[in-house]
Design goal:
alpha+beta, Pseudouridine synthase, 3 domains, 8-stranded mixed β-sheet, 4-stranded antiparallel β-sheet, 25% helix, 28% strand, globular
């Protein structure tokens, strides 16, 4: 199914662009955000990969080290159609010689050790360098838009990839909510897709009334870059000032068991009932995404952006506030 064109915050796209024209034009660097112990039973590998799927590479590392694939850790799934650098952990029970690893498109940049396996979501942030290729008729307007994004952030939607190719996971969510029994991994996709879609609907309503980047009495605040949240009982000058400098952000609900009392987007009663029974813990997600250290270079036919985002955020959310983007993915 086709997904809604959830509202943009900063105006219509200023030009049409293609991304991922080559892998090097979509470059991602994972920033771990904690110190490794330098000893322990896990080798930590800092890997650069081109045109390679994270899960597939984890299996190759497991095979080389002769350990079960489930014991190889990584913090996040990184784009296949890109040049990416990320960390993997591999048990060193068999003391593999990582200098001998030979996988096409893969280079090991650093080997370290740590006492614990790398867990999903453990990294702090990601750094991006992305080239958007397209005719730019009004470069001054593009620069002005980017300055606004740097100052105000962008709506923190879940990206299209969250919903599967062609929105297939939304249909899966409909089947699950209607009572169809699904394999465990497909049930997980269905629940994740339903929660993400509902969040995007709530956020789109706040974008539409221009309250996505300000607090309303009764909101729950998120401290930027953390999982820390607190209730906002009174929107006072301190709250407004902290919001203006992107230190805290308003949030919306990621639906789960016991959340039925909260205001919900209309038209999804089947999902809400199913999620209320699914024993999934409700969570909060920031409505706003801070774009860290945004920089850009403009040419007649290309815009090059570099910026950082906290983990769990989608780089395409920054791009869609500037351009109408087509992704080129036939990269091997």
């Amino acid at each position: 199914m086709s997904l809604p064109a959830w509202a943009r915050a900063h105006g219509s796209p200023l030009f049409a662009a293609s991304i991922r024209t080559t892998p090097a034009e979509f470059d991602v660097t994972e920033e771990l955000g904690f110190e490794l112990s330098g000893d322990g039973e896990h080798d930590y590998l800092y890997v650069e990969k081109t045109g390679t799927n994270t899960e597939w590479l984890a299996r190759q590392l497991a095979g080389f080290a002769d350990v079960p694939a489930k014991d190889v850790g990584y913090s996040g799934l990184k784009d296949r159609h890109a040049v990416t650098r990320q960390w993997f952990s591999v048990p060193r029970w068999n003391q593999p010689d990582w200098a001998a690893l030979d996988v096409d498109g893969v280079s090991i940049l650093e080997v370290n050790r740590n006492a614990r396996k790398l867990r999903r979501g453990a990294h702090r942030s990601n750094r991006f360098r992305i080239v958007l290729r397209g005719a730019i008729a009004e470069p001054d307007q593009v620069s002005e838009r980017l300055q606004t994004i740097a100052q105000e952030g962008v709506p923190n939607y879940f990206g299209e990839q969250r919903f599967g190719r062609g929105g297939a996971n939304v249909e899966l969510a409909n089947s699950w909510a209607a009572g169809k029994r699904l394999p465990r991994h497909k049930r997980s996709f269905a629940i994740s897709s339903a929660r993400s879609y509902l969040f995007n609907e709530l956020l789109a309503a706040r974008v539409a009334d221009n309250s996505w980047n300000e607090f309303i009495t009764g909101d729950v605040a998120n401290l930027d870059g953390s999982g820390s949240v607190f209730d906002v009982e009174d929107v006072d000058d301190e709250i407004r000032e902290r919001c203006a400098r992107l230190d805290i952000h308003p949030t919306a609900l990621l639906w789960g068991d016991g959340a039925a009392a909260e205001a919900a987007p209309p038209g999804h009663d089947n999902w809400l009932r199913a999620l209320d029974k699914a024993r999934v813990q409700p969570m909060r997600r920031s409505l706003r995404l801070k774009v860290v250290d945004l920089q850009w270079e403009l040419e007649d036919d290309a815009l090059t952006l570099t910026f950082g985002l906290t983990r769990g955020a989608y780089a395409t959310l920054v791009l869609r506030e500037v351009a109408s983007v087509v992704q080129k993915r036939g990269l091997g």
